Please model this.
Amino acid sequence: MINVIIADNHPIVRLGIKQVLENDDAIKVLGDVGNTNALFEMLSEATPDVLILEMDIPDINGIATLRKMKDEYPDVQVLIYSGQSEDVYALSTIRAGARGYLSKSADVSYLSVAVEKVSEGGMFITNELAQRLAFDEGTQKPRRFFRKLSTREVEVLKMLANGKRNKEVALGLNLNEKTVSTYKARLMKKLNVDNMVDLLQQAKALELY
Model:
């Protein structure tokens, strides 16, 4: 039996995931939560085999949650199930410790398959995403840039794209402002821009906001 916890800030999404997974006799949902504070409270009482995690869950962002999971619950396999662009975030979250990434726009039949695969220690991404990672499609040219970015750079860029100032980014990611400025400079270099307006345009192309 594969024990699962669902962490997503939308109750209707949690209910839908639960109903889909409960159709699989090999999977048992231990519980569901709407924020990361509640998640770590639940984890102190029940340890699942797989955590299904939304990237934009409140309290602690998804990538920070992944790092915390890796440190405190290394045996729990994490599957990101998110509305955020998989082209941008799949590799970043996998680098941060996720075992798979599934877009909420994907067919729901993938859910049980993904849970089973990551529970066995495998890695899960859809075949469609794998093909896009292997080949640069002409219509998706801007998305090539995400491969150049580290997980932390993606976090910084997303916060900047959401209108956060350097000080707010520093507080949100537990960095100092000088480090944030360094990340901004790296982002501009990697994305081949020389000002914030163009940097935010690249963020828009990557669907970060």
Summary: Confidence is low (pLDDT under 50) at residues 136-142.
